[in-house]
Write a structure and sequence with these properties.
Length: 178
């Protein structure tokens, strides 16, 4: 049962990061098309961007917590979650481009001080968070910032799509083992 929740969270997270650009192409042009003549009458699409953005970050954290619990269960049996997934490395440190393993990335996401989703606007400019135009789409990456156990600060780029694919693999593997 718990693994179905993991898969559903991974699916929702994938939907969020892959659909924002398509939604924007459908809805944002309506604001220009249906402008009113009178200044007190106007048509405007409700700003859904902050909702989708915040929900996506929440899903990323929730999914990481659930996968970290699964990793701890596997460790009790002497197994590593990194051996059960397609992508054993899903993140890289920005400072030195060193890979971060799947299990370590889960911990870093959970304990990070800040998470910003990477966005790309119509012109192809890359930004994070609310830095760029609302007429944008998620790239599938998230930048996390935090502190290591020794107190040194780090920044890492996490491939959210790979994390979700790994979540599905763990769920499928355990489903067939029952």
């Amino acid at each position: 049962m718990r693994l179905n929740i993991v898969s559903s969270k991974a699916l929702k997270l994938l939907q969020n990061i892959t659909s924002l650009g398509k939604i924007n192409k459908l809805l944002l042009p309506l604001n220009e098309k249906f402008k009113r003549d009178e200044p007190y009458e106007y048509f405007a699409i409700k700003d859904y961007y902050p909702h989708v953005y915040e929900e996506t970050i929440s899903l990323l954290i929730e999914l990481s917590i659930m996968l970290r619990r699964e990793s701890e269960q596997l460790e009790k049996y002497g197994k590593s979650i990194n051996n059960k997934v397609k992508y054993s490395n899903i993140a890289k440190y920005i400072s030195n481009t060193k890979d971060i393993s799947f299990s370590d990335a889960l911990s870093k996401i959970i304990h990070s001080d800040r998470i910003d989703l990477q966005m790309k606007d119509k012109s192809g400019n890359i930004g994070y968070g609310y830095e760029i135009d609302r007429n944008c789409e998620f790239t599938g990456f998230a930048m996390i910032k935090g502190k290591e156990k020794d107190g040194t600060e780090y920044q890492a780029l996490v491939d959210v799509k790979k994390l979700c694919i790994n979540a599905f693999m763990i769920g499928a593997d355990n489903y067939y083992m029952m």
